[in-house]
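Late entry, written up from scratch paper. The run itself happened at the end of the previous shift, but nothing got recorded in the book at the time, so transcribing now.
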Amino acid sequence: MGLCSLFNHQIRQKLKARIFVALIALFISPMLLGKPNVLLIVADDLNTRLGTYGDLSIKTPHIDTLANQGIRFDRAYVQYPQCAQSRASFLTGLYPNQTGVVGASGLKKDFRDKVPLTKTLPQVFQDNGYHTARVGKIFHQMVPKGIGQEIYDDKISWDERHNPKGIDRTRVTEIQYLGPLVTEATKKSNMNGGWLSYMRLGGTSNDYTDGRVTEQAISILEKNANSQSTEPLFLAVGYIRPHVPFSAPERFFDLYPLDDISIEDVPEFDRNDIPSAHLSDRPYQLDMTDQEKRIMIQAYYASISFIDEQVGKLISKLEELKLKESTLIIFVSDHGFLLGEHELWQKPNLFENTLRIPLIISDPSSAKAGLSSDSLIELIDIYPTILELSDLEIPKYVLGRSFAKLVNRPSMPFRKSALSQSHARVTQPNLKKENIFGYSIRTEQFRYTEWAKGTHGTELYDHTNDSGENTNLSSHDAYQDVEVGLRRLLRERIAESEVSPNQITER
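Output as recorded:
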């Protein structure tokens, strides 16, 4: 073979090789390339009242199935029990003190005012060749007035954004409030989404915002499955329920007859040892009748089962499109919710049922399924964990810690404590209208809380004997040494959360 022929032969072989690689790229799954698709599902105000977490009164078959197919984390805690503050934190991997999204005014704060160059979780995926899409509420969105808008969204985090709205937004004048309204104008405009309230509008699932969120998410999944592109997908699906006003099609209310609903049995002495700063009472909630309590719990449960249906539709579509085996699925809530514990409702506060959240991860590369982990986890740990499970580099400044190893070894110890903080909703007549902040740590056995560095009260609960946090052991002689140690640990954790991001070094 002459030199010219040999040269042409080599060119043809290289061309064949390139064509072969291109053809492989068209058909090989993102998972095989080391880049799984990622489906992040975020519920709003959802506590751990789910079947998989042991609440047999709740009907959540689809979330329960997801847990059986993945790993359920039983002790995951939020950094801040309010929407904007929590979401800004776990989507950046930074503590609220670092993002600057804190306090009652945090609902309208933008983390980029304090940390403008921070890479959000979807941005890291963007930088690594992912198409990032958001449907519904992922960053903050006022409910109900902000439904269908994106005033508080971080737009640069997404290649694609969708803001569906349904009858639970267009028919807000039909909201049924508990207790007296501030003004008739409030009722007409529905500017106060914090009131304990619900809606019974009838209709089908797709008439509601969350049903339309699901339909839009399914459309994105179908588009991705039918695309010839090898670009992997990061899809964030944000549901607005069970945030007030509780809302769902009527058939979900029918699942929970009022006569079958149990209400919280609050011990008579329970509130006597709770610091005033922690009693975020709204006067009308203290006067609720048992029937009113059942109505609110029913509406909350109905909203949960409605969301469960939506999760089921997403998972079914993944299976139908043969994407489930190449998709990392994360189901989480931004914070919990009180339903009459301590005669308190809603949020924010620093009690267990507000700070503890459901967290489920289904990793297609893991051989483990149907297991649970008791290891302490903070919500900011989700950021580095998702990145590690996707084989992507974690930014050096992120203070969250990856718990990726727990997916395959759920019994491993992880954190020694989980840190949370909140502003006090000051409603007690003996307190001035001032900014009072509380910090709380959860260890394996205890929860310790300080309000305004202890000047407005301290709390110590032993979860070995008091899972309902009904007996404050702070200042009890028998727990003096325990409290001293927890106080020291809390101060260390607070100092960690206050480090400026530009001073954070690689851990």
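Residues 263 and 493 are 36 Å apart (CA to CA).
(Scratch paper discarded after transcription.)
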